[in-house]
Specification:
The structure is a homodimer of 342-residue chains. With 342 residues, chain A is of the alpha+beta class. Chain A has helices spanning 5-21, 27-33, 40-52, 69-79, 88-95, 101-116, 169-183, 193-203, 207-222, 246-258, 260-266, 320-341; strands at 56-57, 66-67, 119-123, 132-141, 144-151, 155-162, 229-232, 277-281, 293-302, 306-315. Chain A folds into three domains: 5-67, Winged helix-like DNA-binding domain superfamily/Winged helix DNA-binding domain (Arc Repressor Mutant, subunit A, Orthogonal Bundle), CATH 1.10.10; 97-126 and 227-340, Beta-Lactamase (2-Layer Sandwich); 131-223, Heat-inducible transcription repressor hrca homolog, domain 3 (Enolase-like, domain 1, 2-Layer Sandwich), CATH 3.30.390.60. The structure holds a DNA duplex (30 and 30 nucleotides).
DNA sequence: GTTAGCACTCGTTTAGGTGGAGTGCTAATC
DNA sequence: GATTAGCACTCCACCTAAACGAGTGCTAAC
């Protein structure tokens, strides 16, 4: 059987209607709702076909139809067209540049949740490709050395190293020079064992302690960043009866609080061919507690190659149009902001 | 009317029983449950008295009794005796020292939630009373100066300052010396406007730019720390039917996610006279969404005067004994750990 | 002062009944 | 052949009434 134009229109109407009401959609509704001028009986026949083809489901005999995952997928793939949309609040918020990334992201998540009435999550941009800009060691206390590393994008890492043996001012100065000459301009992923041992060689004489320090600095640079995911609007799931029953809600809330699983959604390989927008419907998502949800994620980029991901989690009947629109706007805004101020 | 020994015993029995079952407790249950050897009729009379006195409540005529806030308060105040308790997991976890405070706290919250089956929260220790140990300015880029401040307890603050006019190496050196001489050893709360202007005077010549830098450093030092509160086990509220209905659950979950309100519970003035353990029953808590909960908080101390608070949120019928015991153990463990490794 | 007993209350559960939305099928119509 | 009107049927959602039972307050006897 083929999905002709009329079937497509009916499917579209079923999904649209279900998105609005959250209730199974009957043939009579469609008959009135569309401009097809068909009787409910005809619609019924078509709907029977659509069901056979797997696009819609009947919760029980003599109930209306609801979209299946396949139906949603069809809808998202073919019918969704992105609309640019004003998100005034968000724009205003982002324009007043904040200095703390953390706060910005948390706020983006919050505003997004308020705007969409869904649950949101956002991962902090990874800086794996970024270049080291500045390294400095300073003695802060006996046996304690502070290592500060500044990476492009002005991300600062620091670490206190405890050394067994005191380092002279001279050695420290030499080490600083050495580290800066060798590391500045390299991206984090470019720093490898080979160069570290080369540096140790150059450091020469005090190789024991100095070697330790160099190792520690390298470790600090390479250290995996924390799992930085910010969430908001988790409680929005209670707006959608199909997600709000205790068991499901509990699972979902746990997922949002624990955050580990969210990583699977947010740190997907960025397939840069596209707009960076991904839609996961039901079981398409790698997170099992979201089997009754849909997830839309968007990759954002902050000028200098730092990339993170924003995600929106809602019921399958989420307003895909609006969500995708909002995410696109947000993408471009984030881009702008950081181009101007980066 | 007076709360004699028999009434006390009955009240205690009612509360104990309610803690276990979560159901209103009838007179017959008490008659069997206690060793008083009284008939249910007698118990009924006593319970009527207790109700009149405000210690217990009847959800409706012909239902059993549930403790009122006053009843819980009485129970907590008089009957609760702290027991030392093994919290093996927690001990093990804390013994393997982690370097990132954030991770430790997050993990403590999680383990605590798993142990107690309640929702938990923990605030990062504040360092307001701590002393500045080291200050350093370095040029990282044109017009960009990195200020690093190390405070006792090896807490590091840093900030990138953007300056309009380039500072010479010499000026920077001078500034570093000035800042260190003036600020080292002072606690953050001791740094005030007077000293800042004195420093500016000493700085002399380049007062314009230099003044700016000094201000920025002072700001960075005084900057309110982020609202660092970690939560876990929020979804445990679904274990307790009296908290699990949609509206209440939604409110509570929001409170836990937003975290702002939790601050009111966790950043109370530490009344150091006591063990640092506080119990809020129902409306005693400043957070309205917790009107049906009880909250137990414990102040912990990390050696050098840094203090934070741990909180446990559960139903009013939470196991106060266990919770207080667990928190006390945790307090002492945290203390030990940081004495050994601080 | 304590207890047994009883009438009473009131929320909870169960069963039955009804209405309505929606279907599938068939026969008539275009 | 496609469309439609009509009808019998299904099944959920909702309501009501009845039965249940846990627990009470009160009274009278011990």
């Amino acid at each position: 059987m083929e999905l002709d134009e009329r079937k497509t229109k009916i499917l579209q109407a079923v999904i649209r209607n279900y998105l609005e009401t959250g209730e199974p959609v009957g043939s009579r509704t469609i008959s009135k709702y569309t401009d097809l001028n068909l009787s409910s009986a005809t619609i019924r026949n078509e709907m029977a076909d659509l069901e056979e083809m797997g696009y819609i489901l009947q919760p029980h005999t003599s109930a209306g139809r609801t979209p299946s995952d396949k139906g949603y997928r069809f809808y998202v793939d073919t019918m969704m067209e992105a609309k640019e949309r004003e998100v005034v609040e968000m724009k205003e918020m982002l324009l007043e540049r904040q200095d703390k990334m953390e706060q910005v992201l948390q706020r983006v998540a919050k505003v997004l949740a308020q705007n969409t009435q869904y649950a949101t999550m956002i991962s902090a941009p990874k800086m794996a490709g970024n270049k080291v800009k500045f390294v400095q060691l300073s003695r802060v206390d006996e046996g304690q050395i502070l290592a500060v590393i500044v990476v492009e994008g002005n991300v600062i890492k620091n670490n206190i190293l405890t050394v067994r043996e005191e380092l002279s001012d001279e050695t420290l100065l030499k080490l600083n020079l050495l580290l800066n000459t060798n590391l500045t301009g390299l991206s984090i992923s470019e720093i490898n064992l080979g160069m570290i041992s080369a540096m140790k060689q150059q450091a020469g004489i005090h190789s024991d302690i100095v070697g330790e320090v160099i190792d520690a600095v390298a470790d600090a640079i390479k250290a995996e960043e924390d799992l930085e995911i910010y969430t908001s609007g988790t409680n929005n799931i209670f707006r959608y009866p199909e997600l709000a029953d205790q068991e499901k809600a509990s699972e979902l809330i746990n997922t949002f609080e624990e955050k580990e699983q969210l990583e699977n959604l947010l740190n997907q390989d960025f397939d840069s061919d596209n707009t960076g927008i991904q839609v996961y419907i039901g079981n398409e998502s790698p997170v099992s507690s979201m089997r009754d949800c849909s997830v839309v994620t968007a990759t954002y980029e902050l000028g200098d190659g730092m990339r993170g991901t924003i995600g929106i989690v809602g019921p399958k009947r989420m307003d895909y149009d609006k969500v995708v629109g909002t995410l696109k706007t947000l993408q471009s805004k984030l881009d702008e902001i950081y181009k101007d101020h980066g």
